[in-house]
Structures are given as C-alpha cells and as structure tokens.
Amino acid sequence: MTPTPMQSTFESETAQFAQTFQAIRDEVGKFIVGQQEIIENVLIAVCCGGHVLLEGVPGLGKTALVITLAKALDLQFGRIQFTPDLLPSDVVGTQVLSERDGRRELVFQRGPVFCNILLADEINRATPKTQSALLETMQEKRVTVAGVSHPLDQPFFVLATQNPIESDGTYPLPEAQLDRFFFKLQVELPNHDEFAEILNRTGGNHTPLIQAVAHADDILRMGRTLREIPVAKEVQDHLIRIVRNTHPENDKAPDKVRKFVRHGASPRAAQAMLAAGRVRALLDGRFHVACEDVDAVAAPALCHRLILSFEGEAEGIKPADLIRSAIRSAY
Amino acid sequence: MNPSAIETFVHTVRRRLDGGTRLVVVSRVLLAAAVVAVAWALAWRVFGYAAPRQGYAVVAGIAVVAGGLWILLVRRGTREAAAVADRVFDLKDGLVSWLDFKDAGRQGEVYQLNERGLVRELAAHDVTELRVRPPRKVLAAGIVLAIAALVLGLLPHGAAVRDRLAREELAARRSAELEDQVKAAIEEIIKAMSEPERELLKPAELRAWAKQVAVTKDARESEKQLARLEQQIANAMQGLEARQDEAVLKLAAGELAKSALADVRQLGKQLEARDFKQAAQDLKDMKPGAMPKMTPGQMEQLRKNAAKSTDLAKRMADGARKRDFGPQKPGDPAKPPENKPGEAATQRGLDKMLEELDADARDLAKQLDNNKDPADAAGAMAAKVDDKMDGLGKRLGNLDARQKAKDKLDKLRGGLGEARQFAQGKSATLGLAQSAAQGTQLGGLAPGTGSDATRRKERDEFKDNGNLAEIKGRQNAEGPSSSTVESAASGSGIAGRANVAKQREFKQQLEALVHRDDIPEVLKLGVREYFEKVHETDEPKDPKK
Question: Which among B96, B106, B117 is the nearest to A234, CB-wise?
Fold first, then answer.
C-alpha cells in the first residue's frame, strides 16, 4: 500500500513495512519454490533481528534461500561450511602478523562472520568449541579476539542449517546456543507441483534474477516500526501463559508437558514470540497484537527451546504437539 | 475519532448477551421450579391431598429470588462482552485491546490508528449478527412441567381425605364446644362453692383440669381428654371421701335418736339425713357456753346445755364404739383401721374426739352435780367442752363441705358421660354447663334419668345398666335367710401354684380394666368400692397379735 499524503507518519511507516515485506517475499519467491511459510518466518526473524535455524534434509533449498534473501536485501553475505575440523578462528577471525611500513604488527583478520547475513551451513558438524565461537557473535553481535572487541555490521543475522538425518560426526547444538536462535524452522519436502516448478526454474538456462528490493536501513527501520505496535495486557498474559505452560513444574501445565518435558522455554522465547507477533499484526494491517498472532509464532519460537525428558525422547514425542497442548491450556 | 461508537457497540453486545443469559437463567429456573412444584404436588396427591397453594408460592418466591441473584451474578462485564464480540465478529482481539489501551490511558499515534481501524471494522458488522439462541428445549420442558404443576395444584382432595378432614373439623368443633362447656361448668362450680369447699377443692386445680380439655382434631384424643378429666374427678372424689366419719356419725345418729332430749334427737335426725351443716349449727347451740363470770341465769343455761351436751356426747361415743373394727385381742382398745387410700388424714380420730368429748362432758356433769360452785372450775371444764364441741362442729362443717363438693363433682362427672357421647358423635347437643350448674343447687325437681342407668337415685351403685339383679331387703329387720351348701371342690383348701397364678392373672386383668379409659369411670369406681367394702369386713390379721 503506498502511503497517501493524508496518512500520518507512523501509518506510512507501517504501510511501508508491509510493502517492503511483501516485496522481499515476492522477490525471494522468484527463486525459491513454495516454502511460503518458511520464507515468511525467516523474514519475520530478519525483521526482528533474530537468527534462524533451518533444519531439513539436504537439497531442499535451505542454502539457496539464504543466498536469495541476501540478494534481495542487498546485504553482505557470508558463508561458513562447518566441518569437524573447523576452528573458532576460522569463524570469527584471527590475528595475523603483518608487515606494514616496515613494521611488523599483529592485525586482526576478520573472519566470515563479519557480514550482514551469515550462512552457517551444517552447524551441527562443527565441534562445540567452534559452535560456541558463534555464540558471542549471535548474541552480542561482536567479536572479541585478544581482548579487543570488534563490532559486527548491522544488521547481522545468522541463518544456520542442520541436517537431521546424519548422526555420525555431528555435535548436537547445546541448549544455550539453541536458545539464541529466534526461530527453528523445519524445511519440508516439496509437493509434486513444487517439485515440477523447481525443475522448471532451475533446469533451464534461464535463472531468475534476484534484485535488491530492500536494504539494511530498511531492515533496521522495519525493526523499529514493529516495536511500536502495542500489545494488550490480555494478549501478553496469554503469551506468558503459553511459555509458562511449557514448564513441567507449572501446576497449570498440561499433563503431556509434565510428563515429557524436562525444561521449558526461557523468557527469550517470550521476547521472540512478542516481536514475531507484532510483525504478523502489521502484516495483517492491524495496530495491535492478537492472540492468534502469538499462537501462530509459538511453534517456531518454542519447539527448539523445549528439552524433552527421557520418556519424551524414548516415545518420540514431537515438540509441536506439546506446544499445541500448551496453547490450548493457555485459554 | 469516535470512541463512543466502539463503546456503544460493546454495550450493545453486552446487552444482547445479558438478554440471552437472562433467557437461559429464566428457562433453567422455570424448569427447576416446575420440577419442584410437580414433585410437591405429587407428594400430596399420592396421599390423596390437594397440594397446598402455599408451596407453590414458596417455590415461586424462591425461584424469583434465585433467578434474580443468578442473573446478577452472571452478568457479563464489558471485557467479557468485548471478548465475545471479538470471537464472533473475528475482530482478532481488537475490542479487548482497545479497552485495555483505553483503561491504561495509553495515547499516541499508534493507538489512534488502532482505534480508527477498529471503528472501520465495526462499521462493517451488525450487532444483530450476534445470535442469542434461546434454550428452546429447556424452556419448553419448563413450561410443560409448570402447566402440569398448575393442573395438579387445582385438583381437590381425594374422597377419603375429604371425609377425614370433615371428621377432623367436626372433632375440632366438638372439642372446642366441649372445652368451652367444661370451662363454663367448672366456673359455675367454682362460683357456687363455699369457702370451706374452696379449701377442699382448689379453684386453681379445677381450672387446671379444665385446661386438659383442649381443642383437638382427633376424636379419640378428645375422648381421652374426657377420660382423664373423669379420672381426676374420680380421684378428687375419692379424696373427699370420709366414710369412716360418716359411718361413725350414722351410728351416732342411731344412738342420738334414742335420746329423751328433743334437741339431741333432732341432731340425730340431721346426722341421719346427712345434713351436717344444720347439725353443726344445732351442735353449736347445744354448747355449754362457758363465760368468764356467769350470772345465775347463765349458770342455769350452762347446766341445761351441759346436760344436752353430756347426753349427746355419750350417745355419740356409744355409737362410735359400735363400729366394728375387726377382730381384736381381748383387752385391746378398739382401733380404727388404717385410712383407705384417698381418705384424708383429718378423718382420723373422730372416734377419739367423741371419746374425749364424752369424757369431758362427764367431767363437766360431775362437777356440776357435785354442786360445787367453783365457777372457774366448772367454767374451765365447760370451756373445754365448748372447744371440743367446736372441733366437732368444724368436723361436721368439713363433712358438709366434702359432701357438697362431692356432689358437685359427681354432677360434673355425670355430665362428662354426655360429653363423651357428644365427642363420639352419638349426641348432637351438649348441655354440660347447664347440668353442672344444676348440680350445684341443692334440691331439684327430681332425680334425672341421665344417659347412664347406673346414675339413678336410690339405686345401687353396683348396677351395670340393669344387667345384675336388684336385691331388695328391709332395713334393720330380721328375716329368714336361705342358705344352701354348694358342693365344693375337694382338696386341701390351700390354693395351689396354678390357682395362685390364675389369681394373679385375674388381678392383672382387673388392673388393666381399671386403667382403660374407654370404660366409664362410674363402672371402675363401682368395682373399686365393691372390693373396698369387701375388704373392710375382712381385715387382715395383725401378725404381731
């Protein structure tokens, strides 16, 4: 919607938000077939300044999605292919001895994290040490090497991928690192028509050209805009109830949670849900967050933050089921 | 902006929801009340009664109060109405959010935009889209049951119940009339009683008797009340008995009739006629009349009266001595038997009183015959005789009061028989007060026939409505007697164990008979008196003698 002269500043900002969001989605959609929900959630996380963990079998376009997104947002793209022999310095950078003007000095060589969008491919293949090197960058958006902090460029997003089927030579992400991801999204296998479309788009000589429809400033501005959207106390209480219902020690938690969950979601999950809910409200043309906005973002925001108990893992309980129970109990 | 549009919308939704709630509450309350009313009516109808209307009123009242409270309690608040509207009109928590922002006083561009957007959205909706479904089934069931309760409530009492109620009403009316008449009769008796009679029959006690006859719907209870009253009258009459004194006085009268002195003979006649009041008056006139200082004329009068009093005292004492107290050991002074139950302790000692009077009168006569003129000594003895005669006069007065009181109670008791008939419905009218009033007056035209054949004048009290043969005999005369020896059963003459058991059984039957309240009191009294008279002539031997 194009802002009209009669609209107020904020109204025009919200109109701009929706417009930009749609433009980015459409642009990404040129290359990525289907996965609309994944694209939307990734964009929501990007708008909120959050990191996303994409999980899916190889070949579903996870990497392509990130690359396409980087192009559409005209952001500096970085990529790290995590392997077991990857060192932390390979991620964040290191100091190298350099000769300049006849003098030898240690110069910090920036690592691949120094970008706007970092694709951390197969993050679960790196060692925990290397994984933890990413922790600081994801949370604090800076790198400290030899006692010197180097801020990362803004915006900064980590879009990590992991392959759920390989278990040999992988290191499951620790809970602390998992909690730093805004969303965890399951990339599903495309359907038949999507398969056909994929082949049509990528099988020929002509590949869609992705143009930048937004820039870093746009993303930052979108982030500021969405934080203006108010949330009513009832909706906020509903959100809090959902998060608290994921804790087995809560007496109002559903029976499933009490039985199959060891630890529930943290307040960081509530922050993510609130921010994402605001985005959904804006996209719906509203200036208030609704309970359905919160419910819609609960699964991607919470499923990687629930630590199942032994019984839950033994019985193969899906976190999504537990989150649905938690939502029902919140009403 | 127009926040009132949003408020109006919410209030309209709230009113609509409250209306639906009211309908639900009314339906449920109506159903519950109808169920209770039907149950109430059926509970009465099962026993043949018409359901009392008060029950319906109570149920209706409780239903109204409960329904009103319920409606107040379930009234929805504004927030609740907003939440319902959000859900129904798919406003995505718009109204709830708006209310929250408004209550929190939040202001700013974004809130205004939110409000504007909400107004636009509300304009596209009609509140009437919010359907309030009436609880048709509940309402229908409630109405049907209410009609059924109404129909059941209009049904009258069953025939058996109507009859029973009519009987109860009749019993209540009769018992009310009995109550009034018994009270009136007793008041009449109290009014007619003299002071000596009041000392024997306390008015308060009589009135307490009257209170026993109260209004009741149970005819049987009414009969029991009369039986209890009758029992009390009988007990009171027994307490007024002075048979020993009367027996003594009768014997004394016989002796007095042999006197040469007319006054003394007159006294004897009065005693024979049981006119104790007049006898007491005559006795008073025959006192020696001692005075501190007497003139010769007074002394002469004293001598005359002394002669009379000596004569009458002697004769009365002789008569008293004739009374048979049973077998005595030779040399033992004649002892009167123990008082019968019910007889007053004051009856004890009339014999002794007469003996003392006789002794004192003789002493007085001796003193006067000795021709001594110690006026003081003679005067002292005369005064002593006066005192004794005063005592005897009081005794006679007491006997008169007892007799009159007994007569009054007897008349009242006679009226109770009629009352019993009335209570049983065998008599249509009751004249208890009149018959009691008549009984308080001395004399009368003629003895009444009454409804009970045993209460006839000059008849033996042991009659049982003519079932027993009447035995007539000549008083104080001798005649041939016939005696036959019946063959007796052989045996040692000592009752065996079986016979003792039989005797005990008969005794228990008789005791049970005495305590039954459907048997007229006069019959029970007759049985009692019979056995008392029988045992009087057959006193048990004193084992010490």
Answer: B96
Give the distance from residue B113's alpha carbon to the nearest chain A alpha carbon, in angstroms. Answer: 7
Token readout for B191 is: 């009014």
3-class SS at B288?
coil
| Confidence bin at A302 (pLDDT 50/70/90) | very high
CATH number of the A229-331 domain: 1.10.8.80
The pTM (predicted TM-score) of the whole model is 0.58
Nearest to A232 among B96, B113, B117 (CB): B96
Closest chain B residue to the Cα of A11, Cα to Cα:
B113
A313 touches chain B (CB under 8 A): no
**Token pair belonging to B35:** 């169920």
pLDDT tens digits along B276-303: 989 999 888 888 877 777 788 877 887 8
Q: Which contiguous run of DSSP H or E holds residue B5?
A: helix B3-45
Residue B379 has pLDDT above 80, yes or no: no
Whether residue B2 has pLDDT greater than 80: no
Q: Do A287 and B113 touch (CB under 8 A)?
A: yes
| Residue B1 pLDDT grade (very low, low, confident, very high; cuts 50, 70, 90) | very low
Structural fold of domain A1-83+115-142+150-228: Rossmann fold (3.40.50)
**Banded model confidence at residue B491, pLDDT cuts 50, 70, 90:** low
Of A8, A10, A290, the CB nearest to B93: A290
How far away is chain A from the Cα of B84, in angstroms, using its nearest Cα? 13
Nearest CA in chain A to B107: A230
Q: How far is A235 from chain B (nearest CA, A)?
A: 8
Nearest CA in chain A to B86: A290
**Do the Cβ atoms of B113 and A290 come within 8 Å?**
no
For B436: left if phi > 0, alpha if psi spans -120 to 50, otherwise beta; the answer is alpha
Establish if A229 touches chain B: CB-CB under 8 angstroms.
yes
* Owner of token pair 């930009």: A20
Residues of B within 8 A of A10 (CB-CB) are: 109-110, 113
Prediction ipTM score: 0.86
Three-class SS of residue A77? strand
CA A2, distance to chain mean position in Å, is 28
Q: How much is the CA Rg of chain B, to the nearest whole Å?
A: 46
Whose CA is closest to A72, among A225, A183, A209?
A209
B5-30 pLDDT, tens digit each: 899 999 999 999 999 989 999 999 99
Q: Which residue of A has its CA nearest to B93?
A: A290
* Interface with chain B: mutation pick from A287, A292, A331, highest number of B CBs within 10 Å: A287
Delimit the domains of chain B by residue range: 3-156, 159-321+347-438+514-536
Contact B216, B172 (CB under 8 A): yes
- Out of A99-108, A230-239, B197-206, B358-367, the most confident range is A230-239
The two tokens of residue B390 are 């005063």
Backbone φ, ψ for residue A140 (5° rounding): -100, -10
Q: Which residues of B touch A285 (CB under 8 A)?
A: 117
Q: Residue A167 pLDDT > 90, yes or no?
A: no
Selected residues 252-311 of chain A with any CB under 8 Å from a CB in chain B: 284-293
DSSP state for residue A191 in the 8-state scheme: -
Residue B518's Cβ-count burial label (10 Å; 0-12, 13-18, 19+) is exposed
In Å, how far is A294's CA from the nearest CA of chain B? 11
Confidence check: pLDDT of B58 > 90: yes
Per-residue pLDDT at B435: 56
Asked if residues A238 and A231 have their Cβ atoms less than 8 Å apart, the reply is no
| Interface size between A and B, measured as CB pairs under 8 A | 62
Q: Which DSSP state fits B9?
A: H
Q: Who has greater pLDDT, A244 or B241?
A: A244
Strand partners, A158: A118
Structural domain spans, chain A:
1-83+115-142+150-228, 229-331
